[in-house]
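Weekly puzzle thread! Below is a chain. First person to post its structure in token form gets bragging rights.
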Amino acid sequence: MIQIRDLEKSYKTKAGFTYVLRQINLDVNEGDFITFMGPSGAGKSTLLSIIGMFDGEYEGDYQFNGQLVGKLKPKDRAALNKQHIGFVFQQFHLLDDMTVAENLDLPLSYRDLKKSERQSLVADTLDRFGIVAKKDLFPSQLSGGQQQLVAIARAIIAKPSLILADEPTGNLHTDHGREIMDLFKKLNEAGTTIIQVTHNPDWAKYGQRIVTLKDGWMEK
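Winning reply:
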């Protein structure tokens, strides 16, 4: 599914170039469950953002399903993202002017689905996450934990082939966090590829492989 070769990411500063990622080589197969770990500033979220096709400014090669992502036009890269990837952001990234139900419907609007099918999927997902009573509320009316639940529900509702999760349980109580990790495990067992960033060693164990980053380098 994913092949990354000699990927590097840097920013230009007054002192020269500051590298955030150095010589990253990574293969991710369909059905993998991989965890990125490492100290703050190690480059974990940056690498996840590149894999998620939100950041196209880097050196090296990144192939997704055989396509060189770096060669794609921004609109084509965005289309590939919407078709295949569900992303759980650390800061939720819910749309403030949309209700919970409308936020969940958004990723479905990029798929070739009838309105009735979309409404059914939204209803099922609201029920699955226990947030039916919140469907007409706006994100600002929710607690941080509730916003995170909605963000995770939005990421999986369109059944993406790849889920990217940046500290997906960071704002949840331990019991809720375990429920989310159990859900990810079930999705993975059903064939969904998952890459998560976490500092929690218990959550890291849900994956099959841990990739450790430090100062932008992958530790061998």
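Puzzle host: Confirmed. Bonus trivia for everyone else. Residues 2-218 form a domain with the Rossmann fold fold (CATH 3.40.50.300).
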